[in-house]
Amino acid sequence: MDSIKPEGTPEELPGQQSMFKPPEVDPKVAASRTRGSVHLKGTRSLESLRIRIDLASKELYRLREENHQLHREMDALRQRGNSTSEGASVTFSEKPADLQAKLESYIRVVNRYIEQEEAIVDDESAEDA
Question: Does the pLDDT at position 61 exceed 90?
């Protein structure tokens, strides 16, 4: 018996899907697909969490090292503070040779600016005369 279809309705061939109906999917296949995407999202979340934990632990280690260094500096300052010297004491974190080199460099720069300024003033006075 032939079924009668309304006029204008396309005829479906065997194995062909209608584009107006949702595709028929085996429930087992559908369940495995959703599990797969959830599993993938979970894996990404875990990887992201692992990276954040790793970064946090590295930062914690760095802060502990900095804290130990600050404690050592404080202990050194306390020991120097117990000495019986008159007046205020000034301490620097640099080695004396490094500090001296840095200060000499600053002095050379300032001297250069002074020399340039003096040369400009001399040139202006020579032009005025």
Answer: yes
> Which of the four pLDDT bands, split at 50, 70 and 90, describes residue 20?
low
Cα 16 to Cα 102: distance, rounded to the nearest angstrom: 84
Q: Which residue type, as a one-letter code, is found at position 7?
A: E
Residue 83: count of CB within 10 angstroms of its CB: 7
Q: What is the pLDDT of residues 81-104, one digit of tens each?
A: 766 556 677 778 888 899 999 999
Token couple for 103: 């200060």
Contact 17, 23 (CB under 8 A): yes
Work out the angle at residue 74's Cα, subtended by the Cα atoms of residues 69 and 79, and round it to the nearest 5 degrees: 130
Query: Where do the structural domains in the chain lie, given as residue ranges?
Result: 26-81, 94-129
Q: What is the secondary structure of 76-113 as a DSSP string?
A: HHHHHHTS--SS-----SS-HHHHHHHHHHHHHHHHHH
What's the rounded Cα separation, in Å, for the pair 33 and 10?
Answer: 31
pTM above 0.85, yes or no: no
